[in-house]
Design brief:
The protein has 7 helices and 5 strands. By secondary structure, it is mainly alpha-helical. The protein starts with 7 loop residues before the first strand and ends with a helix.
């Protein structure tokens, strides 16, 4: 029997949001179904889970505001001829958030998705990386970017660190460039140690 090319598959938010999360695309669902047979553990790092949750809740609240504003406008227009009290029966944000969390729990249980904790690196360490523009930080005209990417990247590195000889091949549209940097070198050394 040949050894697997990799043992862990880490999802970033971009690939899951494209489905759109928490609905699964056919491709993601196929990956989740076949991973156990290939002895691959699927992991969503805690920072990614947090980012996905905030994204979904923000989208819900934006749509709720849009619907409420449209209903208010319609009600205001209709009041010119008669009284009308619209009740859209929309769930409050906290209830919708609870339903979202339940859905995520169901997905994680059904497909055996695990979490990796937030990085244990200090804020000072991450800030120093940002100041030096070490990957995944980069400088663009509008300012610096990469803080969330750094937290996700370091969370994956920290999760892999105790597992010896685990190849590090992050796959994401936001993956730092492949050129060797002091950070990448130290991360590779730490994983191989």
């Amino acid at each position: 029997m040949t050894e697997a090319m990799f043992r862990f598959l880490y999802f970033d938010s971009n690939i899951l949001l494209a489905a759109p999360w928490p609905r699964l695309s056919a491709t993601i669902e196929n990956i989740l179904k076949t991973a156990p047979a290939a002895d691959v553990t699927v992991i969503i790092p805690a920072p990614v889970e947090e980012e996905l949750a905030h994204h979904w809740i923000r989208g819900f609240n934006e749509r709720l505001r849009t619907l409420t504003a449209a209903a208010d406008a319609f009600q205001g227009h209709y009041r010119n001829v008669s009284e009308l009290e619209l009740d859209l029966g929309l769930p409050p944000s906290d209830y919708a958030t609870t339903l979202y969390q339940q859905r995520i729990g169901e997905l994680k249980e059904k497909y055996g998705i695990q979490s990796a904790p937030f990085t244990s690196r200090s804020l000072a360490d991450v800030f120093a990386m940002a100041c030096l523009y070490q990957p995944p930080f980069r400088r663009i005209k509008e300012g610096d970017v990469g803080f969330r990417d750094a937290v996700i990247f370091l969370s994956v590195i920290d999760h892999l660190a105790p597992r010896k000889r685990t190849p590090l091949r992050p796959l994401s549209p936001r993956t730092p460039s492949s050129r060797t940097t002091p950070l990448r070198h130290s991360c590779r050394q730490r994983v191989r140690a």
